[in-house]
Amino acid sequence: MNKVKVLITDDSIFMRKLLSDLLEKHPKIEVIATAKNGKEAIEKIKEYTPDVVTLDVEMPLMNGLQALEVIMREHPVPTIMLSSTTSEGSLNTIIAMEQGAVDFVAKPSGAISLDIHKVKDELINKILLASKSNLTLFKQPIQKEKEILSSHNIYSKIDLLGNQRKVGDALVCIGTSTGGPRALQTLLSMIPKSFPAPLFIVQHMPRHFTKSLADRLNSMCNITVLEAVHNQKVEMGTAYIAPGDYHMEVIKRAGSLFIHLHDAPPKRGHRPSVDMLFQSISTLENYQKVAVLLTGMGNDGTDGLKQIKERGATETLALAESEESCIVYGMPRAAILSGMVDEVHHLKDMSNRINQYILS
């Protein structure tokens, strides 16, 4: 059996030792080298050709973001970021995933986490998943994709038509996991400011990081992107991201939609859960709906999609991201195999199709 060869990068010799010991115990992983900063990591990638790199976000000499930029440009390799939960650390982690990191793991208690064993299973699972990820997707910057998409005439047409829709009779719900931040940036940046529907998003991500994700996307998109707040009234042209560690549902009260957050037990290991969001959407009557499943591991969202389709099949468009553009082809694949998906699209075409359907 070929083991996954891992390079560990952390400025703390103690953390390098802890991580090495933790990973070496797994029968499918081999730690082939360690590095104390980004510069050394780049050199050791050339020397050892690892299958996966773990990269600390905050390091001296060359930090994780700086190193990642060089790695993805010169020697692309699946990379997992190790991050603190500070506001700066979480924002840098979101930026890292835009730049090509497959995923991240939050250190339980800061830069030197003696309790790193608490995230052992998560780290191992993400390393094994990263070793199978579609790395070719990281070789084209998101900005280039955005420039290509912006040239499509449909967007100028949408801006002119956006205000013709009656308020509140359409909505979009999106579920994603591994690779989601990058996918959401591509999709949401192509939604026009006058978009005549709200968007509800579940991204599998722990608390603190969803706020940084929402703020980052809000700074880059025409629409407003927010981390959802309990009892918040829903507005058109706004995307609501479920906060980490809370389920998000959408309810109707006095003729308006509101956000409902709660901390019920995780559903199939996830909180927030895409299934939970989609199931709440299924109960809303007289709405034109688009349900979207993007890149991610597992099958969260498939059961919820079934409920949406069963309760209003004629007014719901179910979309799944194609294998070609998925970093991890898990959640879309599960939905497609269920027979509930109407159309499959490359990520670069997804926002175009959503706009066409909502405005048709």
From TrEMBL:
Its main location: cytoplasm. NCBIfam families: PRK00742.1. It catalyses: L-glutaminyl-[protein] + H2O = L-glutamyl-[protein] + NH4(+); [protein]-L-glutamate 5-O-methyl ester + H2O = L-glutamyl-[protein] + methanol + H(+). One of its GO terms (molecular function) is phosphorelay response regulator activity. Its EC number is 3.1.1.61, 3.5.1.44. Residues 165-360 form the CheB-type methylesterase domain. One of its GO terms (biological process) is chemotaxis. Residues 5-122 form the Response regulatory domain. This is Protein-glutamate methylesterase/protein-glutamine glutaminase. The active site is at residues 177, 204, 300. The modification 4-aspartylphosphate is found at residue 56. Pfam families: CheB_methylest, Response_reg. GO terms for cellular component: cytoplasm. The keyword rRNA processing does not apply. It comes from Sutcliffiella horikoshii. Phosphorylated by CheA. Phosphorylation of the N-terminal regulatory domain activates the methylesterase activity. Belongs to the CheB family. It is found in: Cytoplasm. Keywords: Chemotaxis, Cytoplasm, Hydrolase, Phosphoprotein. Contains a C-terminal catalytic domain, and an N-terminal region which modulates catalytic activity. PANTHER family: PROTEIN-GLUTAMATE METHYLESTERASE/PROTEIN-GLUTAMINE GLUTAMINASE, PROTEIN-GLUTAMATE METHYLESTERASE_PROTEIN-GLUTAMINE GLUTAMINASE 1.
